[in-house]
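pinging the channel bc i need a second pair of eyes. not urgent but kinda urgent?? the chain im working w is below, pasted from the shared doc
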Amino acid sequence: MEYFVIGDSDTVLGFSLVGVDGIAVSSEEEVRAAWDKALENKEHAVIIITSAAAGLIRSTVDRFLFSESFPLVVEIPSPGGEKGPDLRELVNEAIGVSL
């Protein structure tokens, strides 16, 4: 089971420090390309995407958020956005395993 992150460069860099692959994006086209790349690899069981990136392809993300199919999608707050739950709590809740 592998994780893959899609978001701004700071988020992708942060996750890369703990060994998570990802792609930094800034436009709708880049988000769609990153999303497609993430889905190509069947080892990507969890896709972590920032709320800003998810907002650019909302209908696509929602199809995965509200289904029981894999990969599991975890939407996290974008840097500088609203304060939400702790990132660790979000991932733990989504995968049902305490990290």
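so The CA atoms of residues 49 and 75 lie 5 Å apart. and Residues 2-95 form a domain with the Rossmann fold fold (CATH 3.40.50.10580). — does that match what u expected or am i reading it wrong
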